[in-house]
Design a protein that fits this description.
Elements: E1 7-18, E2 21-22, E3 35-37, E4 64-65, E5 75-91, E6 99-108, E7 115-116, E8 128-129, E9 138-159, E10 163-171, E11 196-198, E12 225-226, E13 236-252, E14 260-269, E15 276-277, E16 289-290, E17 299-302, E18 308-320, E19 324-332, E20 338-350
Antiparallel strand pairs: 1-20, 2-10, 3-5, 4-10, 5-9, 5-10, 6-7, 6-8, 6-9, 11-13, 12-19, 13-17, 13-18, 13-19, 14-15, 14-16, 14-18
Length: 351
Protein backbone atom coordinates (compact mmCIF):
# COMPACT_ATOMS: atom_id res chain seq x y z
CA UNK A 1 0.00 0.00 0.00
CA UNK A 2 1.54 3.27 -1.17
CA UNK A 3 0.13 6.77 -1.22
CA UNK A 4 1.02 10.32 -2.11
CA UNK A 5 -1.36 13.07 -1.02
CA UNK A 6 -2.05 16.77 -1.50
CA UNK A 7 -4.54 18.74 0.58
CA UNK A 8 -6.49 21.50 -1.12
CA UNK A 9 -8.01 24.04 1.26
CA UNK A 10 -10.75 26.47 0.39
CA UNK A 11 -11.02 29.80 2.20
CA UNK A 12 -14.63 30.83 1.84
CA UNK A 13 -16.24 34.26 1.86
CA UNK A 14 -19.98 33.67 1.98
CA UNK A 15 -22.54 35.73 0.18
CA UNK A 16 -25.74 35.31 -1.79
CA UNK A 17 -25.97 34.80 -5.52
CA UNK A 18 -29.07 35.34 -7.57
CA UNK A 19 -29.78 32.98 -10.44
CA UNK A 20 -32.59 34.87 -12.11
CA UNK A 21 -34.10 34.87 -15.58
CA UNK A 22 -34.83 37.86 -17.79
CA UNK A 23 -38.47 38.81 -17.41
CA UNK A 24 -39.00 39.81 -21.00
CA UNK A 25 -38.14 43.37 -22.01
CA UNK A 26 -35.18 42.64 -24.27
CA UNK A 27 -36.82 39.64 -25.95
CA UNK A 28 -40.31 41.23 -26.23
CA UNK A 29 -42.05 38.71 -23.96
CA UNK A 30 -43.38 41.86 -22.27
CA UNK A 31 -45.28 43.56 -25.13
CA UNK A 32 -45.30 47.30 -25.80
CA UNK A 33 -48.79 47.63 -24.32
CA UNK A 34 -47.47 46.80 -20.84
CA UNK A 35 -44.77 49.48 -20.84
CA UNK A 36 -45.72 52.98 -19.70
CA UNK A 37 -44.12 56.15 -18.40
CA UNK A 38 -44.92 59.40 -16.64
CA UNK A 39 -44.14 61.23 -19.90
CA UNK A 40 -42.32 60.81 -23.20
CA UNK A 41 -40.38 63.36 -25.23
CA UNK A 42 -42.49 62.37 -28.25
CA UNK A 43 -43.90 59.06 -29.57
CA UNK A 44 -40.50 58.10 -30.99
CA UNK A 45 -39.05 58.24 -27.46
CA UNK A 46 -41.93 56.32 -25.82
CA UNK A 47 -41.81 53.69 -23.09
CA UNK A 48 -41.72 50.95 -25.74
CA UNK A 49 -38.17 52.11 -26.54
CA UNK A 50 -36.94 51.21 -23.03
CA UNK A 51 -35.80 47.66 -23.87
CA UNK A 52 -32.23 46.68 -22.98
CA UNK A 53 -29.81 46.77 -25.95
CA UNK A 54 -32.41 48.38 -28.23
CA UNK A 55 -30.87 50.58 -30.94
CA UNK A 56 -32.27 53.45 -32.97
CA UNK A 57 -34.26 52.36 -36.04
CA UNK A 58 -35.16 55.27 -38.33
CA UNK A 59 -37.10 57.79 -36.28
CA UNK A 60 -37.55 55.36 -33.39
CA UNK A 61 -34.94 56.43 -30.85
CA UNK A 62 -32.52 54.35 -28.81
CA UNK A 63 -34.17 54.64 -25.37
CA UNK A 64 -37.21 55.89 -23.52
CA UNK A 65 -36.76 59.60 -22.95
CA UNK A 66 -38.95 61.60 -20.57
CA UNK A 67 -40.61 64.82 -21.65
CA UNK A 68 -39.38 66.62 -18.53
CA UNK A 69 -36.20 66.48 -16.47
CA UNK A 70 -37.55 66.39 -12.91
CA UNK A 71 -37.99 64.03 -9.99
CA UNK A 72 -41.59 63.19 -10.96
CA UNK A 73 -40.66 60.98 -13.91
CA UNK A 74 -40.95 57.20 -13.94
CA UNK A 75 -40.82 54.17 -16.23
CA UNK A 76 -43.23 51.32 -15.46
CA UNK A 77 -43.43 47.64 -16.42
CA UNK A 78 -46.63 45.64 -15.95
CA UNK A 79 -45.70 41.96 -15.62
CA UNK A 80 -49.40 41.02 -15.75
CA UNK A 81 -48.94 38.50 -12.91
CA UNK A 82 -46.96 38.69 -9.65
CA UNK A 83 -43.27 37.97 -10.19
CA UNK A 84 -40.35 37.79 -7.80
CA UNK A 85 -38.00 40.67 -8.69
CA UNK A 86 -34.33 40.02 -7.90
CA UNK A 87 -32.35 42.38 -10.15
CA UNK A 88 -32.61 45.33 -12.53
CA UNK A 89 -30.22 46.16 -15.38
CA UNK A 90 -30.08 49.58 -17.07
CA UNK A 91 -28.36 51.30 -19.99
CA UNK A 92 -28.26 54.84 -21.26
CA UNK A 93 -29.56 56.05 -24.61
CA UNK A 94 -27.93 54.31 -27.56
CA UNK A 95 -27.96 57.26 -29.99
CA UNK A 96 -27.13 60.23 -27.72
CA UNK A 97 -25.08 60.97 -24.59
CA UNK A 98 -28.06 60.76 -22.24
CA UNK A 99 -28.44 58.40 -19.30
CA UNK A 100 -29.81 58.01 -15.78
CA UNK A 101 -27.08 58.03 -13.12
CA UNK A 102 -29.25 56.93 -10.18
CA UNK A 103 -32.79 55.73 -9.54
CA UNK A 104 -35.24 54.33 -7.02
CA UNK A 105 -37.51 51.30 -7.43
CA UNK A 106 -41.17 51.02 -6.43
CA UNK A 107 -43.34 47.92 -6.45
CA UNK A 108 -47.11 47.37 -6.61
CA UNK A 109 -49.62 44.57 -6.85
CA UNK A 110 -52.50 46.71 -8.16
CA UNK A 111 -50.84 49.53 -10.14
CA UNK A 112 -52.28 52.15 -7.81
CA UNK A 113 -50.45 51.88 -4.48
CA UNK A 114 -46.66 51.55 -4.68
CA UNK A 115 -44.09 50.65 -2.04
CA UNK A 116 -40.54 51.96 -2.51
CA UNK A 117 -37.61 49.61 -2.05
CA UNK A 118 -35.98 50.76 1.17
CA UNK A 119 -32.31 50.98 1.99
CA UNK A 120 -31.29 48.37 4.53
CA UNK A 121 -32.04 49.53 8.08
CA UNK A 122 -33.14 52.92 6.75
CA UNK A 123 -36.47 54.74 6.47
CA UNK A 124 -35.50 56.41 3.19
CA UNK A 125 -35.98 54.75 -0.19
CA UNK A 126 -32.83 53.14 -1.55
CA UNK A 127 -31.07 54.99 -4.37
CA UNK A 128 -29.36 52.65 -6.84
CA UNK A 129 -26.26 53.74 -8.75
CA UNK A 130 -26.89 53.50 -12.50
CA UNK A 131 -25.06 54.44 -15.68
CA UNK A 132 -22.02 56.48 -16.65
CA UNK A 133 -22.21 56.08 -20.44
CA UNK A 134 -24.58 55.10 -23.22
CA UNK A 135 -24.21 51.34 -23.51
CA UNK A 136 -22.57 49.73 -20.47
CA UNK A 137 -25.10 47.54 -18.67
CA UNK A 138 -25.27 48.26 -14.93
CA UNK A 139 -27.00 45.60 -12.80
CA UNK A 140 -28.35 46.16 -9.29
CA UNK A 141 -29.51 43.36 -7.00
CA UNK A 142 -32.30 43.94 -4.48
CA UNK A 143 -31.13 43.14 -0.96
CA UNK A 144 -34.53 41.53 -0.28
CA UNK A 145 -36.27 40.31 -3.47
CA UNK A 146 -39.86 41.51 -3.81
CA UNK A 147 -42.97 39.99 -5.29
CA UNK A 148 -45.02 42.39 -7.39
CA UNK A 149 -46.88 42.83 -10.63
CA UNK A 150 -45.96 46.45 -11.42
CA UNK A 151 -42.37 47.71 -11.23
CA UNK A 152 -41.55 51.42 -11.43
CA UNK A 153 -38.07 52.83 -11.97
CA UNK A 154 -37.88 56.43 -10.74
CA UNK A 155 -34.87 58.44 -12.02
CA UNK A 156 -33.20 60.56 -9.34
CA UNK A 157 -30.20 61.98 -11.21
CA UNK A 158 -29.19 61.95 -14.87
CA UNK A 159 -26.68 63.09 -17.47
CA UNK A 160 -28.07 65.65 -19.95
CA UNK A 161 -31.60 64.15 -20.13
CA UNK A 162 -33.67 61.39 -18.49
CA UNK A 163 -33.22 58.49 -20.94
CA UNK A 164 -32.86 54.80 -20.19
CA UNK A 165 -33.11 51.20 -21.29
CA UNK A 166 -34.10 48.46 -18.87
CA UNK A 167 -34.35 44.75 -18.10
CA UNK A 168 -35.83 43.02 -15.04
CA UNK A 169 -34.67 39.68 -13.65
CA UNK A 170 -36.48 37.27 -11.39
CA UNK A 171 -38.82 34.31 -11.30
CA UNK A 172 -42.49 33.73 -11.84
CA UNK A 173 -45.36 33.96 -12.18
CA UNK A 174 -45.73 33.56 -8.44
CA UNK A 175 -48.94 31.65 -7.76
CA UNK A 176 -48.88 31.44 -3.98
CA UNK A 177 -49.71 35.03 -2.99
CA UNK A 178 -52.93 33.92 -1.36
CA UNK A 179 -54.53 32.79 1.87
CA UNK A 180 -53.69 29.17 0.99
CA UNK A 181 -49.97 29.35 1.78
CA UNK A 182 -48.85 26.59 4.17
CA UNK A 183 -47.48 27.11 7.66
CA UNK A 184 -43.68 27.19 7.68
CA UNK A 185 -43.20 25.04 10.76
CA UNK A 186 -43.42 26.76 14.11
CA UNK A 187 -46.47 24.96 15.49
CA UNK A 188 -45.45 21.56 14.09
CA UNK A 189 -41.76 21.89 15.10
CA UNK A 190 -40.56 21.84 11.50
CA UNK A 191 -38.47 24.78 12.69
CA UNK A 192 -36.36 23.56 15.62
CA UNK A 193 -35.76 25.52 18.81
CA UNK A 194 -32.20 26.40 17.75
CA UNK A 195 -33.53 28.59 14.92
CA UNK A 196 -35.67 30.73 17.24
CA UNK A 197 -34.08 33.72 18.96
CA UNK A 198 -35.05 36.99 20.60
CA UNK A 199 -33.64 40.30 21.73
CA UNK A 200 -34.25 39.22 25.33
CA UNK A 201 -36.24 36.76 27.43
CA UNK A 202 -37.79 37.20 30.84
CA UNK A 203 -35.97 34.05 31.91
CA UNK A 204 -35.20 30.69 30.21
CA UNK A 205 -38.75 29.46 30.83
CA UNK A 206 -40.03 32.37 28.70
CA UNK A 207 -37.47 31.91 25.88
CA UNK A 208 -37.95 32.22 22.14
CA UNK A 209 -38.60 28.47 21.90
CA UNK A 210 -41.93 29.14 23.66
CA UNK A 211 -43.20 31.33 20.79
CA UNK A 212 -44.96 28.53 18.87
CA UNK A 213 -48.62 29.05 17.99
CA UNK A 214 -51.07 27.21 20.27
CA UNK A 215 -48.30 26.24 22.71
CA UNK A 216 -49.52 25.91 26.31
CA UNK A 217 -47.71 26.09 29.63
CA UNK A 218 -45.97 22.87 30.69
CA UNK A 219 -44.74 22.97 34.28
CA UNK A 220 -42.31 25.88 34.51
CA UNK A 221 -42.21 26.33 30.71
CA UNK A 222 -44.51 29.27 30.06
CA UNK A 223 -47.20 29.76 27.44
CA UNK A 224 -45.38 32.26 25.19
CA UNK A 225 -42.11 34.01 24.52
CA UNK A 226 -41.90 36.94 26.92
CA UNK A 227 -39.31 39.70 26.57
CA UNK A 228 -37.17 40.78 29.49
CA UNK A 229 -37.96 44.45 28.84
CA UNK A 230 -41.05 46.34 27.70
CA UNK A 231 -39.70 48.70 25.05
CA UNK A 232 -39.67 49.07 21.26
CA UNK A 233 -36.19 47.56 20.99
CA UNK A 234 -37.48 44.01 21.50
CA UNK A 235 -37.79 41.44 18.71
CA UNK A 236 -38.55 37.79 18.05
CA UNK A 237 -36.65 36.15 15.19
CA UNK A 238 -37.18 33.02 13.10
CA UNK A 239 -34.41 31.60 10.92
CA UNK A 240 -35.91 29.74 7.96
CA UNK A 241 -32.46 28.46 6.96
CA UNK A 242 -33.24 28.85 3.23
CA UNK A 243 -34.98 31.73 1.43
CA UNK A 244 -38.78 31.58 1.68
CA UNK A 245 -41.49 33.83 0.33
CA UNK A 246 -43.37 34.96 3.44
CA UNK A 247 -47.01 35.78 2.70
CA UNK A 248 -48.67 36.08 6.11
CA UNK A 249 -48.16 35.86 9.87
CA UNK A 250 -50.44 34.68 12.68
CA UNK A 251 -50.01 35.69 16.32
CA UNK A 252 -51.50 34.88 19.71
CA UNK A 253 -51.00 36.29 23.17
CA UNK A 254 -49.65 34.43 26.18
CA UNK A 255 -51.65 31.32 27.08
CA UNK A 256 -51.18 31.44 30.84
CA UNK A 257 -51.45 35.18 31.59
CA UNK A 258 -53.25 38.24 30.22
CA UNK A 259 -50.28 39.48 28.19
CA UNK A 260 -50.18 40.07 24.44
CA UNK A 261 -48.75 42.24 21.67
CA UNK A 262 -51.30 44.65 20.16
CA UNK A 263 -49.18 45.95 17.27
CA UNK A 264 -45.95 44.95 15.54
CA UNK A 265 -43.68 45.55 12.56
CA UNK A 266 -42.03 42.89 10.40
CA UNK A 267 -38.42 42.96 9.19
CA UNK A 268 -36.80 40.62 6.69
CA UNK A 269 -33.19 39.64 6.01
CA UNK A 270 -31.15 37.34 3.82
CA UNK A 271 -28.02 37.33 5.98
CA UNK A 272 -29.28 37.83 9.55
CA UNK A 273 -27.45 41.13 9.86
CA UNK A 274 -29.13 43.56 7.46
CA UNK A 275 -32.90 43.85 7.82
CA UNK A 276 -35.52 45.63 5.72
CA UNK A 277 -38.80 46.56 7.40
CA UNK A 278 -42.00 45.70 5.52
CA UNK A 279 -43.53 48.91 4.20
CA UNK A 280 -47.11 50.17 4.11
CA UNK A 281 -47.88 50.40 0.38
CA UNK A 282 -50.20 53.38 0.89
CA UNK A 283 -47.82 55.54 2.93
CA UNK A 284 -44.32 54.27 2.17
CA UNK A 285 -43.53 54.10 5.91
CA UNK A 286 -42.97 51.07 8.14
CA UNK A 287 -46.19 49.08 8.30
CA UNK A 288 -47.61 48.48 11.77
CA UNK A 289 -49.82 45.39 11.86
CA UNK A 290 -52.77 45.16 14.25
CA UNK A 291 -52.27 42.14 16.48
CA UNK A 292 -54.04 40.64 19.48
CA UNK A 293 -56.73 41.71 21.94
CA UNK A 294 -56.69 38.61 24.19
CA UNK A 295 -54.56 35.63 25.10
CA UNK A 296 -55.71 32.98 22.62
CA UNK A 297 -57.53 34.40 19.57
CA UNK A 298 -55.45 33.85 16.44
CA UNK A 299 -54.94 37.10 14.46
CA UNK A 300 -53.60 36.75 10.91
CA UNK A 301 -52.01 39.52 8.81
CA UNK A 302 -51.25 39.16 5.09
CA UNK A 303 -48.27 40.93 3.51
CA UNK A 304 -49.43 42.85 0.43
CA UNK A 305 -45.97 42.58 -1.16
CA UNK A 306 -44.51 39.30 0.14
CA UNK A 307 -40.74 39.51 0.74
CA UNK A 308 -38.20 36.78 0.15
CA UNK A 309 -36.07 36.17 3.22
CA UNK A 310 -34.20 33.71 5.40
CA UNK A 311 -34.66 35.60 8.66
CA UNK A 312 -37.95 37.10 9.84
CA UNK A 313 -38.13 39.46 12.82
CA UNK A 314 -41.28 40.53 14.62
CA UNK A 315 -40.85 43.94 16.27
CA UNK A 316 -43.53 44.68 18.90
CA UNK A 317 -44.67 48.31 18.90
CA UNK A 318 -47.45 48.12 21.52
CA UNK A 319 -48.62 45.57 24.06
CA UNK A 320 -50.99 44.69 26.90
CA UNK A 321 -49.46 43.90 30.30
CA UNK A 322 -46.12 42.66 28.93
CA UNK A 323 -44.48 41.86 25.59
CA UNK A 324 -45.51 38.21 25.15
CA UNK A 325 -46.47 36.40 21.96
CA UNK A 326 -46.88 33.17 20.03
CA UNK A 327 -46.32 33.02 16.28
CA UNK A 328 -46.68 31.14 13.01
CA UNK A 329 -45.35 32.11 9.55
CA UNK A 330 -46.94 31.14 6.22
CA UNK A 331 -45.45 31.10 2.75
CA UNK A 332 -43.65 29.04 0.14
CA UNK A 333 -40.15 27.79 -0.32
CA UNK A 334 -37.34 27.27 -0.44
CA UNK A 335 -37.43 29.63 -3.43
CA UNK A 336 -35.38 28.55 -6.41
CA UNK A 337 -34.14 31.89 -7.70
CA UNK A 338 -32.05 32.86 -4.69
CA UNK A 339 -29.38 30.25 -4.12
CA UNK A 340 -27.08 30.36 -1.16
CA UNK A 341 -24.52 30.40 -0.03
CA UNK A 342 -22.13 30.90 -2.88
CA UNK A 343 -18.46 31.24 -2.07
CA UNK A 344 -15.67 33.44 -3.29
CA UNK A 345 -12.90 30.87 -3.30
CA UNK A 346 -9.21 31.16 -2.67
CA UNK A 347 -7.50 27.86 -3.43
CA UNK A 348 -4.37 26.89 -1.50
CA UNK A 349 -2.34 23.90 -2.61
CA UNK A 350 -0.33 22.24 0.16
CA UNK A 351 2.43 19.75 -0.74
Amino acid sequence: MSLRVAVILCIVSFGWVVSAAQLGLQNYVVPDGRLSASSEYDPNHGAKRCRLNLARVGDLRGAWAARYNDANQWLQVDLLHPYQIDQLATQGRQDLDQWVTSYQVACSMDGATFSSVKKTNEVAAEVFTANTDRNTVITNTLNVPLVCRFVRVIPITWNSHISMRLELYGQGPVTDVSDDAPALGLEKYGIPDARLSASSEYNPDHGAKRCRINLAREGNLRGAWAARYNDVNQWLQVSLLDPYRVTKLATQGRQDLSQWVTGYKVACSMDGANFNTVQDVSTGSDQVFTANTDSDTLVTNTLSVPPICRFVRILPTSWQGHISMRLELYGEGPTLSVKAPYAELEWIYLN
